Amino acid sequence: QVQLVESGGGLVQAGGSLRLSCAASGRTFTLSAVGWFRQAPGKEREFVARITWSDGTPYYANSVKGRFTISRDNAKNTIDLQMNSLKPEDTAVYSCAARIGNVFNYWGQGTQVTVSS
Predict the structure, then answer these.
(1) pLDDT in tens, 43-57
(2) Which DSSP symbol is given to 13?
(3) Are 45 and 23 in contact (CB under 8 A)?
């Protein structure tokens, strides 16, 4: 079992920045990657970014590339998402998820990010 707890959401004006953090606990040695996803009202959940647990290789959705940065601290078992140049369309509930093998098996409770225009 892996437990995930997100923090760092909030309200920010367009063009501003927020940093989300995901704290992982439990059997983290079984992880292959940790990712961030988001879901806006009335829309399906979409992939934002992921990072390989073993070597820290990042991968981003085109919509956030160049604005968001995912990073991890293996000693602390935290995965951060630095979000810069935020846009109103980034407004969503952001959730982190842990992948074992090829499936994101574990999910956090989510944190709200609201970007005002």
Answers:
(1) 999 999 999 988 999
(2) E
(3) no
